[in-house]
Amino acid sequence: MSTPDNPAGRLLSVLHSVKSAKINAEEPAWQVWAQIFSLEPNSTAVMERIVELNLALDQAEKKMSDLGRDTADYKKHIASIRRAISPNLFNAKWKTVLDQLTDGGLMALSGYSDIISITGSEGEVATEQLQELQRAVEDLIERTIQVGVTDEFSQFVLEQLEKVRQAIVRYRFRGPGALKAAMESVTGAMIGSRELVVEAKKTRPELYKELGSVMDLFNKTIQTVEKFSPYAASLAEWGFLKMLGPGS
């Protein structure tokens, strides 16, 4: 069984859920994709997920190429996967998508995943850890909004939490790389807004501490992926907010 520790494995995981879904084959594809991704039937949001699927396939093919593997025997089967997730089928009947998800295509994608996993696994974050982080992020977003976004720091907090929330959503497609990118973005924002954050320790101490707790949890989540552990550990050694230096 292929593992979702690489682009091909993550795409395969999504497509297996697609194949097993009990959905009317006559429905428009975009409506079904919305159900698969637990989205409101909003064309823009659904299309963004379709793009993510295509990017995952692109990354898988690039990794195979970088490994110097001969993919000639896989190509014709992978082509069916490419057609199944094509934006061109966005308004087609769902049956048209399912017809392209052939057993040969899924087996070829599984082959990609197995090869990439052996030589270039990105690691995995446990579902339970992602769910814990997601709950913490969403709870703090809700509490911050309920109290009222009446100052610059509150707005700043919401912006950073949204980056983390989006990274958790994208993990299904981009894996640990999505988390790393969000961590780097949040870290840069924290350092760039050091005066604002340090001042908030005095003016918004509770929110300051809550943000620190969530970000430390984010650190610990990333540390479970060995590839990124040196980066995350450099922050976790002092605690997320302490990285801002004296006065924080």
Model description:
With 248 residues, the chain is mainly α. It has two domains: 7-120, no CATH class; 127-244, no CATH class. Helix content is 73%, strand content 0%. The chain is built from twelve helices and no strands. Helix 2 crosses helix 3 (43-66).
User: Number of helical runs?
Assistant: 12
User: How large is the share of residues in beta strands?
Assistant: under 5%
Radius of gyration: 21 Å
Low-confidence stretches: 229-238
SSE order, as H and E?
Answer: HHHHHHHHHHHH
Shape, principal axes of CA atoms: globular
Question: What's the number of extended β-strand segments?
Answer: 0
Looking at how many chains there are and whether they match, the oligomeric state comes to single chain
Report the average pLDDT across residues: 87
What is the structural class?
A: mainly alpha
* Biggest sheet descriptor: none
Number of domains: 2
**Gap between N and C termini, in Å?**
47 Å
Helix content: over 70%
Short characterization:
The chain has 248 residues and is mostly helical.
Topology, pairings included?
Layout: H1 7-20, H2 29-36, H3 43-66, H4 72-84, H5 94-100, H6 103-120, H7 127-147, H8 152-174, H9 176-192, H10 194-203, H11 205-223, H12 229-236
Helix pairs in contact: 1-3, 1-6, 2-3, 3-6, 4-5, 4-6, 7-8, 7-11, 8-9, 10-11, 11-12
Supply the key terms.
mainly alpha, 248 residues, 2 domains, 12 helices, globular
